[in-house]
Amino acid sequence: MITSSTVVNSVVEKLRQALARGQWRTGEMLPGQRELAEQLGISRPSLREAVTVLETLGLVRSMPGKGVLVLDADLAESTPLQTGVADASLEDVLQLRYTLEPFIVGLVAQSISSKEIGQLRLTLMDMREALEAQDSEAGVNAYIAFHEELFTLTANPIFQSVVQQTSNALKQSAAVLRNSPEHLAARLEENEAVVRAIRNKNSAQASAQMRHHILQEGRRMGIELNIPDDHPVA
């Protein structure tokens, strides 16, 4: 099943109007996915995609394990989170990810809790279910959610604004990811290797597996990244 862009756009507009009316105020959490999907009369995949769009617009922020936080719309409009991202090439996106994500997962492996590992594994299960159902839209949403969860697990507050840029950049490549559903199995396998290393508290291995994953993502997109000599190619 592929989520209709028409449905998603309609949901985005409904949610934007509700936010503008103050139905949910800044700092509040949106209702849970199931409840909100029922209120809107849509599927949960359609809702997840709409939330992704709203997050890209700076109106909400997904908080793994907590829900979706409503942001200050005026502040979001004045904050240049999207500066440079809209015009970024796929190679630009991959370079940013290659720079940050291996380091982030190395940090995460040092301090992650059992509960947080469980949440990562649940998101990987969403990817596997999407793969088995041949639902490329849900697979891409789960893939993005997995990497966003990794971003939020870093405890360094200075990373947060930079990590938001990485999250936005990842969403910029979503269209390409959707056009290659046959690659979902490879993404799942590579991300499972990352989680195994994190679970084993092996920072070096987690970083290496993430570098391998991003290089493979580039190859699936027809891009060979130029990488520093001191970073081994997987």
Descriptive report:
With 234 residues, the chain is mainly alpha-helical. Helices cover 67% and strands 3% of the residues. The chain contains eleven helices and two strands, in the order αααββαααααααα. The protein has helices spanning 5-21, 33-40, 44-56, 73-78, 90-111, 114-133, 136-152, 159-172, 174-178, 184-199, 203-220, and strands spanning 60-63, 67-70. Strands 1-2 form a two-stranded antiparallel sheet. A hairpin with a 3-residue loop joins strand 1 and strand 2. Helix 7 (136-152) runs antiparallel to helix 8 (159-172). The longest helix has 22 residues, at 90-111. The radius of gyration is 17 Å and the shape is globular. The chain starts with a helix and ends in a 14-residue tail after the last helix.
